[in-house]
Design brief:
Length: 269
Amino acid sequence: MPVHFERPSDHPHVAVVTLDRPDQANALDPECLAQLAEAWRRIAADDDIRCAVLTGAGERVFCSGMDLKTTIPASQRLARGERVSEGEFEGLRSVATALLAGFDLKTPLVCAVNGHARAGGFDLMLASELRFAVPHATFALEEVALGLYPTGNATVLLPRQIGWVHAFDLLLTARPVDADRALEIGLVNQVVAPERLMDEALAAADAIAGNAPLAVRETRRGVREILALDLERAYERQEALGSPLRRSEDAREGQRAFVEKRKPVFQGR
């Protein structure tokens, strides 16, 4: 299977999704797109999953984007009104969900970038909240060099996440940046040795999953919604999201645990 979904027993409430086509640079073919979309839907529907981790198989590439040998030709045939196979059609109609472009995962996502992140791989990374990368990783949006518009997450999310000039450098030049530059411009949280990559990503996921799940989900939701609002509406929305949590069982448990000097046991209520 080109996409693996795991619930590691030693990381409660965490799901790990792995793109597993290392011989094809973890490129997104129709089957991979359909399976990736299904993994995201599964995570979004499961309240027991409090954080997800995405990585790629192998040591060279995180994800090179759409498969130029399968997905792109099928997409072009469909655009011309020609027939495509059932599997190709399922993959093509899953693109937006697979890339988390407009699909709300409802759950924090940590990316363990094990190598080069290009095009659709870059888009997937942009949908995450935390990012760890190996030193040899590179990052590029190459659509304009191919005569294409980057229709994933790049033009929507990138200018909201890093500086204007840095976003346009990536979007308009199609030149890659290395991991150190990605760290410098705020594209990733940390650059770590390959042998420590998953440990760091899972440690962050465990930290997130160990917090009150309702508070984590609503905080994530709030930041994403408030970015598009003016200040007055942003403060109103913040209060609307925060007020119900103050009456939750988890809030009471958190306060009791603090007073009793113990680790809280959150139930998501």
